[in-house]
Design goal:
- The protein is 45% helix and 11% strand.
- It is built from twelve helices and five strands.
- The longest helix is centred in the N-terminal third of the chain and has 11 residues.
- The relative contact order is 0.19.
Length: 205
């Protein structure tokens, strides 16, 4: 595999924290009720439909019909989605800025609702203006680790697999990127990822 010259980031849990708990702990006071709601109602599997391109109006209507007693809480997911992405992962935004200052081309592939992405990303324009392109799963109706999303991203980014480093917190997504010929790194901490970038010659000590 050749030496990478570009970096492709995941967004949720790599650049920014994401967890529905950050929203619903503000709306549900009882801890036991909160845990039950997150485990049984607004599950990760339910939300994955948004990443795959389904409209929130459809998914929320279906879920509210199944759990009518929670309809108001379910509806809050849409207008308050940004509350589920509360802050950056420590050290990662600094790495983005450092790579950008070094002239390294930056891209992203994110499993993210195409419906929620525009409103959220405009709050972080200072960061994402540094990116040349971002593939958003909900817009493409392709989700990681589907091989098709990596193929689409590489074509759009004008890269061959060995040209890029990809970082993601999901082992399955990392494996999918490796299958596409990309140098893929499982995210743990900013310190560990920066050390890998130094090892690859993309950043200096």
């Amino acid at each position: 595999m050749g030496t990478p010259s570009a970096v492709i980031f995941d967004v949720g849990k790599v650049l920014f924290e994401w967890d529905p708990r950050y929203l619903y702990e503000r709306l549900i006071e009882d801890d036991q009720a909160l845990e039950a709601f997150l485990a049984n109602v607004v599950t990760r599997e339910w939300h994955f439909q948004h990443d795959a391109g389904r409209p929130f109006a459809e998914t929320s209507a279906e879920l509210s019909a199944q759990f009518p007693e929670h309809a108001e809480l379910i509806h809050a997911w849409g207008p308050r989605f940004n509350d589920t992405v509360p802050h950056a992962i420590p050290g990662m935004l600094e790495i983005v800025r450092e790579l950008d200052a070094a002239g390294v081309p930056l891209f992203a592939i994110t499993n993210f609702s195409g419906e929620f992405w525009p409103d959220w990303v405009k709050q972080h324009a200072e960061l994402f203006d540094r990116f040349r392109d971002v593939v958003v799963s909900g817009d493409e109706k392709l989700v990681k680790p589907d091989p098709a999303i990596y193929a689409l991203a590489l074509k759009r980014f004008g890269l061959e697999g060995p040209d890029a480093v990809f970082v993601d917190d999901s082992p399955a997504n990392v494996a999918g990127a490796r299958d596409a010929g990309i140098h893929a790194v499982l995210f743990t901490t900013a310190e560990d990822f920066r050390a890998e970038l130094v090892r690859l010659g993309l950043l200096s000590n």
